[in-house]
Design brief:
With about 350 residues, the chain is of the alpha/beta class. It folds into two domains: about 190 residues, Rossmann fold (3-Layer(aba) Sandwich), CATH 3.40.50.2000; about 160 residues, Rossmann fold (3-Layer(aba) Sandwich). Helix content is about 50%, strand content about 15%. The protein has 15 helices and twelve strands. The protein has a six-stranded parallel sheet, sandwiched between helices. The chain has a six-stranded parallel sheet with strand order 9-8-7-10-11-12, sandwiched between helices. Helix 8 links the parallel strand 5 and strand 6. The chain is globular, with a radius of gyration of 21 Å.
Length: about 350
């Protein structure tokens, strides 16, 4: 029996969920599988879901300690699972979708869906499809992910598998497939190492630090600097003026779909410890300087990089520029060490690996 239909469930609450869902769907479609990606909460609640997402982003970017407290409560209590009854509209929508599509496998890249499916199963509306949960965090995995009836958990690395096993998840339910990254990461490495190194600075929420970071980085002689600013046109103009005043060249991008290739061509990535960002950097074997850690899920991503020797934490312009200088000093000795450290954590073909596992279920 061939795998025909997979229902992939995602959410806009965090970059990693949508990235994992889209990349897995691309790998499945490559095999001829009908893979539909749905954000059930967005489809069920529309504007209200959008407002909740905006509030979540506001909190993690401007009041991260509040989110840290929420993360702790969700991890230590049954609040998430016990409260799913309030999402009746989402449960009904998902139940109808399962009935219509008759998927062979349901894949969740967001922890809430496991509990929503438990609710649907209690109503005998879930069909016979197996649930596979793709965990998008490393090490600090909130128990909301696994306090549900998922048949399997696909995790990004061995350390996370060990952490989940220690938390009580049966080892036979855990598979290390890697975080599903874009298929382009499996292509040959485009980099040429030294004497000039490519550095990518992804500006995230700490826009107030961006000008200082760029001003300090352009003084480093043996790097080519690329900066991404998203849709912040004002920040882009500010950085262009810094470059013009200094007489130095900076490659600046707004929002771009070519981010995977920017990471692949870079020798060093400067960014926050987001799940998708960290895993794409590891897939590309690009060491990182971490500029920000959101309490909770991002703490594990940062620990993974730092404890493995594949990156370090630097949160001020001076500390960041000093870290870049040390990375490429002495002919790039530290860079080579950190590049080597990414090897055991790199899963460039992870989306296809996960897709192959789903095929094995039928």
């Amino acid at each position: 029996m061939a795998l025909k239909t997979v229902l992939v469930l995602t959410s806009g609450f965090g970059e990693g969920h949508n990235a994992a869902a889209g990349n897995l769907a691309a790998a499945l479609r490559e095999k001829g599988v009908n893979a539909g990606v749905h954000d059930i909460f967005a489809e069920a609640y529309g504007r209200a879901n959008g407002m909740a997402r905006d509030l979540y982003l506001l909190v993690i970017n401007h009041a991260p300690m509040i989110w840290g407290a929420v993360f702790f409560v969700l991890d230590r209590t049954s609040l998430a699972g016990g409260g799913m009854g309030v999402f009746g509209r989402a449960a009904r929508l998902l139940g109808r979708m399962i009935s219509r599509l008759q998927p062979d496998v349901i894949v969740s890249t967001y922890p809430g869906y496991g509990h929503l499916l438990d609710l649907i199963r209690r109503r005998n509306e879930a069909g016979d499809a197996r649930l596979v949960t793709i965990v998008t965090d490393s090490l600090t995995v909130n128990s909301v992910w696994f306090r549900c009836g998922s048949d399997y958990f696909l995790v990004p690395n061995d350390s996370t598998a060990g952490a989940m096993s220690a938390a009580g998840v049966p080892s036979e339910k855990i598979r290390v497939t890697g975080f599903p990254v874009p298929l382009v990461f499996s292509e040959p490495d485009p980099r040429v190492t030294g004497p000039v190194y490519d550095v990518l600075f992804m500006v995230n929420s700490a826009h107030h630090l961006a000008a200082g970071v760029v001003a300090s980085l352009i003084e480093i002689e043996n790097i080519r600097l690329t900066v991404t600013v998203g849709r912040d046109a004002g920040l882009r103009r500010m950085l262009e003026n810094i470059a013009k005043t200094s007489g130095k060249h900076i490659e600046i991008h707004g929002w771009t779909p070519d981010m995977p290739n920017l990471i692949r061509r870079s020798h060093l990535l400067i960014s926050k410890a987001g799940g998708a960002t960290v895993q794409e950097a590891l897939a590309a074997r690009t060491p990182m300087i971490i500029t920000q850690i959101i309490p909770g899920q991002e703490e594990g991503n940062a620990r993974l990089l730092i404890e493995s020797g594949a990156g370090e934490l630097a949160t001020t312009p001076a500390a960041i520029s000093d870290a870049v200088r040390r990375t490429f000093r002495e002919g790039g000795r530290l860079y080579r060490e950190r590049h080597a450290a990414t090897g055991p954590l790199s899963h460039p073909n992870s989306a296809r690996t996960a897709a192959a596992f789903l095929e094995s279920l039928v």
